[in-house]
């Protein structure tokens, strides 16, 4: 090579590497993509054990103080709640009052927080901003439709009141179940204990959230009033008139006990929040189970230390079994099992060669890890919080949901007390740990995937897979562009027309500006993508629309928009009318599309990494493979067939609704698939202000449409 | 010589003989110790120790003192302190439960941490220097990091909203200062009997630090430096320790028909773990008071009326004092009633127990037993004040002060049925550190949920904006609200600033404190007047109660999370920045320097004669070898 180059200009090494990569772009992209997917599959092997990073937490260093006496208190509250639920039709008012009375009796400051459920509407103009004016929203909500949260605050005896720990128990006040009553009882027993202890340094707030309009809504409403109260009395007046018209329930308290007011009280900056739920599982297990939910909006996670202390205390102190969400369908997957066994084999071989190499994990662990990782990634990518803790993350508060389920049915009273004691001690331990914390959570990771409750993959490791997947994109774009230019120039050189040689200069300039047309096409399609993602705002306004009709309207409107845009700004195949041998128009289009996709993925990886990761998995092969079907048929038969099949398959998977349907069918079986699934899925995305929605509309869908353009390119 | 010596001896003798007489006539050093106990509505007990030491003026009495602590005397002399107050507080005063109107809460409820203010009698240009020296002296004296108040970013000079000393007053607060026995011990050393005898002996450290509120305060008033008109009373050193303790409640206390629980019985020995072993012999007054506040007295009277037992108000039987509502184990020496012009129906009652007749062998202890469950509430300040932060994120936010009117101000505007003309004055004094950049022009005032024009409500305002790394922002305001106001709110927006990496304190990730704001209500005077037989033998704590001071409340300390750099990663940051800069400048220079055309020409020329170059090179090498 040096010999042949010596006659020409010898470029610098970095340029040479670039040229080398561009010239071998096919091999490079295949290698990188495989390596990227492989790295993704290897993540469960690369996961590290979690450890408590912040020394101040000291979990489990103190003996729990929660005693059976407190549990009997809890049972008393549970009985009262169940009784009030049976006796009164208007339990919606009775239970918050009951809970507030219990809080007040234990010596805490108590108040009612009334809120109006907020409708989740798509507001394109304030997508990321959570600031809005509640006055507008409340205008047509009737008096009857408000929830009442009971909030109790324990002021730390010698604390300075700068920080607070929040406990949340969501319950449906309209129809309370035993498990919700138990979660109230559990937190009450803890709460009454915490009013008596002398080690509190942070205030404790117990929010008994009335979840009859959704768990998230009540918590979010309280947090909104905590952080951004409205002083100009529109909302206030409304609530006040409602209070009078409804009943004088809140003020009709026992005159001897302390009056419970509606005045909103605060307790400083929030250090951490725990949402506590008790669930009654059907299946019986050998241990009480604790499920941890941590994903908040846009894939934000709480600090890993919070999960670590819960996991540490649950496993090593209270003997609970800790679970995190996993994709159960993956557990029975055959190919995953095979891959896991291969890895295990490799691990044992490596250990035989050198006992220091310990990277193999058992196949069963691998499958579990992959299933957990997949679900962790999916929920982060979705950008929809997995529980009421999501509302806290919007205010930079670390929060998780703890869902505790007993090993036997909750109706068994003896076992119930034991279960309550155990889970109460767990929560007490967590509170005590967080209470020890001097600074806010900052030591441990914020960007991570969980592969097991005690194992995690940090950002430094999982970035590799994404980087490998995305790396071929610029190379292939450059290769395609330079190829197309070369083809163009060779065609002009070979042309027998003598007049063309005379106009060589303008032809050259025209050729170098050829990408402009492709860029225009890409721009039109992206513009269309933006319009499509704004359409649901209009569709929502349509009266009496079912998800299916909305979906249909959306699809039809989208196609209509595309046609109109083409009609206004010109069709992508406009230049085709000029007959030209070896038209490489499509290659330039593809290269511009790949560049746009690269930019989109890069931006998305900053906003929500998991979305970018999953998006790259779907999009990168699709973009790289896209090839006009007409050209394919000119090649060999086998090659043509595989190429066509791959293209069609990738094109199918790359279409967002299709991808969702495929995912649903693998997770829940084909029977559950419904035409309107995609609509409701997308609706949930915009309702939660998920950036994934923007990604779908602005990056993924346009890219898919461009791929389809290339596939159908009339060369 | 002998003659001279005898004269000297005579003079000394004369002096020794007459000086006590002189001192007695013009005022003598005095020390008094008092303890005020008060049951609180939320089953807790307030204990307020009050020690007062007086030194007569130097020009009469001289520089030598028997009782007055030398350290404090020297401090007053050296820094020409006119008035000073230093408080160490742990916990928060619960204004709603423990009251906010009486003199005890107005003067002893302090913000968490350390608060220091001092007024000096020095020329205005020396005030800052004197303040700095004073902080260092106090820091050494009280084992606390008061010296952090030396920095000009930590203290401010309030003009009129805090105290009426214009110009010579400095105010500073350290909300994060932890308070413990190391601060109490030097404070106790200032007492003539320390904690070896007298009332201070019952300060059992574990008990007083177990409480819900603990505030140790030192106040100095000196008239040494003649700018004061009128009586020259020398130096008064007032030391108070206020603790709120929870007596151990009986678990199986019976519940009454109304559903309320009997308050726990308590005694001095049960809340402090010690009994009072007599008085400090150096003390002029050594007294224990038990106060029942207005609300409680009114409730008790109501109970009596319900019982139908008229005029069986108090019964003395076998050395104990009994009442339908409660019982005292020791008969008080005196019962003092408040003279109240405003609320004639209910007035607080003080039971006085003199400690003179008790000793170590016969210690004093009084227990207080409730007979009936009583629910009452303490007298509230006209507004309940709370301050909080709004917004989230690391960029900006706003500070809100919300005022909610209490029963008192409602009663006030009912009694003052003037109508629109009635205005309530509220003074606000707030210091904000410089890294919280408050935009004072964004001040918004809401009264009863309606936004108001600022000039309608704010009567007077003085703002000194913060200067980065030099001085904090100070806001002093006089607000006038209509008397019928139910709630009011003030908001100001701020931006969060950036600190230099070495300016972050340890544990920077906790956030930064904004010290408490002081809200005072000059329309209301926190004073209680007592009906007394002989005013000459006045106890210092009672005369303190009769002083009229405006009602004060402190707001919460706020915690502002600021952006913090990743302190553990300076190395990474340096490497990455250097790499980026190297790549950027390297490639930029490369592009700028390169002349593509010339390079090509050069290479072409090389192509023509490649062997000649080679030859040249070998020739040079040969020459080099030859040289060697």
Automatic annotation (TrEMBL), chain A:
> What keywords tag this UniProt record?
Membrane, Transmembrane, Transmembrane helix
Q: Which residue ranges are recorded for the region named Disordered? A: 487-506
**From what organism does this protein derive?**
Tetracentron sinense
Q: Where is the chain membrane-spanning?
A: 459-481, 518-539, 551-574, 586-606, 612-629, 641-663, 693-712
This protein's source sits in the domain of life called Eukaryota
Q: Does the keyword Transmembrane apply?
A: yes
User: Could you tell me the Gene Ontology terms of the biological process aspect for this record?
Assistant: attachment of GPI anchor to protein
Please provide, in alphabetical order, the Gene Ontology terms of the cellular component aspect for this entry. GPI-anchor transamidase complex
Tell me which InterPro entries the record gives. Gaa1
Write out the coiled-coil annotation as residue ranges: none
Name of the featured protein: Glycosylphosphatidylinositol anchor attachment 1 protein
Decide whether keyword Membrane is in the record: yes
Automatic annotation (TrEMBL), chain B:
Which sequence ranges are marked TM in the entry?
A: 571-592
Lineage of the species this protein comes from: Eukaryota, Viridiplantae, Streptophyta, Embryophyta, Tracheophyta
| Native source species | Tetracentron sinense (Spur-leaf)
Q: Per its UniProt record, what InterPro entries does this chain match?
A: PIG-T
Gene Ontology biological-process entries: attachment of GPI anchor to protein
The superkingdom of the source organism is: Eukaryota
One cellular component GO annotation, for this chain's record?
GPI-anchor transamidase complex
Q: Which UniProt keywords apply?
A: Membrane, Signal, Transmembrane, Transmembrane helix
The protein's name is: GPI transamidase component PIG-T
Question: Signal peptide span per the entry?
Answer: 1-23
Q: Give the Pfam families listed for this entry.
A: Gpi16
């Amino acid at each position: 090579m040096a010999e042949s180059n010596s006659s020409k200009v010898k470029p610098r090494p970095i340029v040479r590497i670039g040229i080398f990569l561009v010239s071998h772009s096919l091999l490079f992209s295949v290698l990188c993509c495989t390596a990227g997917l492989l790295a993704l599959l290897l993540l469960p092997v690369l996961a590290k054990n979690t450890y408590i990073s912040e020394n101040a937490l000291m979990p489990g260093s103190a003996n729990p103080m929660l005693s059976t006496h407190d549990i009997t208190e809890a049972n008393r509250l549970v009985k009262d709640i169940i009784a009030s639920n049976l006796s009164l039709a208007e339990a919606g008012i009775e239970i918050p009052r009951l809970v507030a009375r219990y809080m007040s009796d234990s010596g805490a400051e108590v108040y009612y927080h009334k809120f109006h459920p907020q409708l989740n509407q798509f507001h394109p103009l304030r997508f990321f901003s959570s600031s809005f004016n509640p006055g507008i929203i409340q205008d047509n909500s009737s008096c009857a439709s408000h929830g009442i949260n009971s909030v109790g605050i324990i002021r730390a005896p010698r604390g300075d009141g700068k920080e607070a720990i929040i406990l949340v128990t969501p319950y449906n006040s309209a129809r309370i179940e035993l498990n919700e009553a138990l979660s109230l009882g559990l937190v009450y027993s803890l709460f009454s204990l915490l009013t008596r202890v002398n080690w509190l340094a942070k205030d404790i707030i117990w929010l008994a959230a009335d979840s009859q309009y959704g768990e998230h809504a009540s918590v979010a409403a309280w947090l909104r009033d905590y952080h951004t109260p409205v002083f100009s009395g529109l909302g206030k007046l409304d609530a006040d008139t409602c209070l009078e018209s409804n009943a004088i329930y809140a003020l009709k308290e026992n005159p001897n006990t302390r009056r419970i007011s509606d005045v909103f009280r605060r307790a400083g900056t929030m250090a951490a929040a725990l949402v506590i739920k008790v669930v009654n599982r059907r299946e019986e297990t050998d241990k009480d189970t604790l499920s941890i939910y941590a994903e908040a909006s846009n894939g934000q996670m709480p600090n890993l230390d919070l999960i670590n202390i819960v996991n540490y205390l649950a496993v090593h102190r209270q003997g609970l079994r800790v679970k995190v969400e996993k994709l159960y369908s993956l557990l029975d997957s055959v190919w995953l099992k095979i891959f896991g066994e291969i890895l295990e084999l490799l691990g044992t071989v490596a250990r035989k060669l050198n006992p220091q190499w310990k990277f193999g994990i058992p196949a069963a662990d691998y499958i579990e890890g992959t299933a957990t990782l997949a679900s962790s990634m999916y929920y982060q990518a979705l950008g929809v919080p997995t529980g009421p803790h999501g509302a806290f993350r919007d205010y930079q508060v670390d929060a998780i949901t703890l869902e505790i389920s007993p090993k036997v049915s909750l109706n068994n009273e003896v076992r119930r007390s034991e279960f309550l004691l155990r889970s109460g001690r767990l929560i007490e331990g967590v509170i005590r740990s967080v209470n020890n914390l001097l600074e806010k959570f900052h030591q441990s990771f914020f960007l991570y995937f969980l592969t097991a409750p005690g194992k995690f993959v940090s950002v430094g490791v999982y970035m590799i897979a994404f980087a490998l997947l995305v790396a071929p994109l610029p190379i292939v774009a450059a290769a395609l562009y330079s190829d197309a230019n070369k083809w163009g120039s060779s065609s002009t050189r070979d042309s027998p027309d003598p007049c063309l040689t005379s106009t060589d200069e303008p032809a050259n300039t025209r050729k170098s500006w050829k990408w402009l047309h492709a860029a225009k096409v890409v721009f039109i399609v992206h513009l269309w993508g933006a319009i499509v993602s704004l359409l649901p705002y209009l569709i929502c306004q349509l009266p009496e629309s079912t998800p299916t009709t909305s979906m249909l309207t959306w699809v039809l409107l989208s196609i209509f928009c595309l046609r109109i845009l083409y009609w206004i700004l010109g069709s992508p195949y406009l230049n085709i009318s000029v007959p030209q041998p070896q038209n490489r128009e499509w290659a330039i289009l593809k290269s511009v599309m790949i560049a746009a996709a690269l930019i989109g993925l890069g931006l998305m990886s900053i906003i929500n990494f998991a979305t970018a990761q999953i998006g790259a998995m779907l999009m990168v092969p699709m973009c790289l493979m896209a090839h006009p079907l007409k050209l394919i048929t000119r090649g060999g038969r086998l090659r043509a067939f595989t190429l066509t099949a791959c293209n069609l398959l990738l094109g199918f998977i790359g279409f967002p609704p299709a991808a969702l349907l495929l995912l649903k069918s693998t997770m829940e079986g084909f029977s559950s698939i419904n035409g309107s699934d995609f609509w409701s899925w997308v609706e949930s995305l915009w309702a939660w202000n998920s950036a994934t929605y923007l990604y779908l509309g602005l990056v993924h869908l346009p890219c898919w449409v461009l791929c389809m353009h290339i596939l159908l390119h009339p060369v | 010589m002998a003659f001279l010596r005898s004269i000297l001896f005579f003079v000394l003798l004369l002096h020794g003989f007459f000086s006590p007489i002189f001192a007695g006539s013009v005022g003598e050093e005095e020390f008094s110790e008092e303890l005020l106990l008060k049951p609180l509505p939320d089953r807790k007990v307030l204990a307020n120790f009050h020690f007062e030491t007086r030194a007569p003026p130097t020009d009469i009495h001289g520089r030598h003192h028997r009782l007055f602590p030398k350290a404090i005397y020297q401090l007053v002399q050296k820094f020409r302190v006119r008035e000073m107050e230093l408080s160490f507080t742990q916990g928060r005063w619960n204004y709603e439960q423990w009251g906010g109107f009486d003199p005890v809460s107005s003067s002893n409820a302090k913000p968490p941490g350390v608060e220091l203010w001092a007024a000096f009698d020095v020329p205005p240009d020396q005030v800052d220097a004197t303040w700095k020296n004073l902080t260092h002296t106090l820091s050494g004296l009280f084992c606390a990091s008061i010296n952090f108040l030396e920095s000009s970013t930590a203290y401010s000079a309030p003009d009129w909203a805090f105290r009426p000393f214009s110009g010579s007053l400095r105010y500073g607060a350290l909300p994060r200062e932890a308070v413990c026995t190391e601060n109490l011990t030097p404070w106790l050393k200032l007492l003539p009997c320390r904690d070896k005898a007298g009332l201070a002996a019952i300060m059992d450290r574990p008990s007083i630090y177990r409480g819900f509120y603990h505030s140790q305060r030192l106040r100095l008033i000196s008239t040494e430096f003649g700018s004061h008109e009128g009586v020259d009373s020398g130096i008064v050193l007032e030391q108070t320790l206020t603790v709120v303790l929870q007596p151990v409640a009986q678990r199986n206390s019976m519940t009454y028909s109304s559903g309320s629980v009997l308050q726990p019985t308590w005694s001095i020995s049960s809340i402090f773990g010690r009994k009072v072993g007599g008085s400090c012999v150096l003390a002029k007054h050594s007294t224990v008071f038990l106060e029942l506040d207005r609300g409680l007295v009114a409730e008790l009277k109501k109970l009596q009326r319900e019982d139908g037992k008229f005029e069986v108000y108090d019964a003395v039987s076998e050395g104990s004092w009994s009442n339908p509502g409660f019982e005292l184990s020791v008969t008080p020496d005196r019962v003092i009633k408040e003279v109240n012009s405003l609320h004639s129906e209910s007035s607080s009652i003080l039971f006085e127990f003199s400690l003179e007749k008790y000793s170590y062998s016969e210690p004093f202890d009084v227990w207080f037993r409730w007979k009936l469950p009583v629910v009452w509430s303490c007298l509230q300040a006209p507004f309940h004040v709370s301050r909080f932060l709004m917004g989230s994120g690391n960029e900006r936010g706003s500070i809100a002060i919300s005022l909610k009117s209490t029963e008192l101000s409602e009663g006030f505007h009912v009694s003052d049925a003037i109508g629109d003309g009635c205005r309530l004055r509220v003074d606000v004094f707030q210091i904000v550190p410089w890294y919280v950049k408050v935009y004072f022009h964004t001040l918004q005032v809401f009264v009863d949920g309606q936004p108001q024009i600022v000039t309608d409500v704010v009567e007077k305002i003085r703002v000194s904006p913060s200067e980065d790394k030099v001085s904090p922002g100070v806001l002093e305001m006089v607000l006038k609200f209509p008397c019928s106001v139910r709630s009011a709110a003030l908001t100001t927006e701020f931006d969060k600033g950036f600190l230099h990496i070495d300016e972050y304190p340890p544990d920077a990730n906790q956030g930064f404190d904004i010290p408490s704001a002081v809200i005072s209500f000059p329309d209301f005077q926190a004073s209680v007047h007592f009906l007394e037989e002989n005013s000459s033998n006045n106890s210092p704590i009672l005369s303190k109660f009769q002083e009229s001071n405006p009602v004060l409340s402190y707001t919460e300390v706020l915690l502002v999370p600021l952006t913090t750099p990743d302190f553990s990663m300076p190395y990474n940051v340096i490497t990455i920045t250097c790499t980026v800069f190297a790549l950027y400048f390297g490639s930029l220079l490369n592009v700028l320097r390169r002349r593509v055309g010339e390079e090509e020409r050069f290479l072409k020329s090389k192509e023509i004669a490649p062997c000649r170059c080679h030859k040249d090179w070998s020739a040079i090498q040969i020459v080099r070898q030859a040289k060697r």
